[in-house]
Amino acid sequence: MVRSEQALALLATAFLLFIMPPGSQQGPHEKRLLNNLLGPYNVLERPVANESEPLEVKFGLTLQQIIDVDEKNQILTTNAWLNLQSEH
After folding, report:
1. What's the Cα-to-Cα distance from 14 to each of 5, 10, 19, 32, rounded to whole Å?
2. Are 58 and 85 in contact (CB under 8 A)?
3. Confidence grade of residue 21 (pLDDT, cut at 50, 70, 90)
4. How far apart are CA 17 and CA 10, in angstroms?
5. Terminal-to-terminal C-alpha distance of the chain
6. What is the Cα–Cα distance from 71 to 66, expressed in whole angstroms?
């Protein structure tokens, strides 16, 4: 009985994944909002009023997972997030 329920759940999941359209579904309003907000954004500019002012950036590292430890070659493979924050 449990096996047939698992098979039915797997079949239902496969069907739902098959009928769902791929990619992101966004409307024209969301696309226009993103273009208005991020369109004039220049990634090369620093977010300061005076260009001669220094920009303080705080950063940190959040360890999510240790994937592998190779003691012989002294290699630690991890999954981590880099956290950046600027005060402007």
Report:
1. 14, 6, 9, 34
2. yes
3. low
4. 11
5. 61
6. 13
pLDDT at 16: 66
Q: What confidence tens digit (pLDDT) does each residue in 30-87 have?
A: 888 888 888 887 878 887 888 888 888 899 999 999 999 999 999 999 999 999 888 7
CA pair distance 23, 17, nearest whole angstrom: 12
Range of the domain at 82: 56-88
Residue 61 lies in a domain: yes
**In degrees rounded to 5, what are phi and psi of residue 43?**
-70, -15
- 87 located within any domain: yes
Predicted local distance difference test score (pLDDT) of residue 37:
84
Please, which residues have CB within 8 angstroms of residue 14's CB and are 6 or more apart in sequence? none
Domain count for the chain, please give it: 1
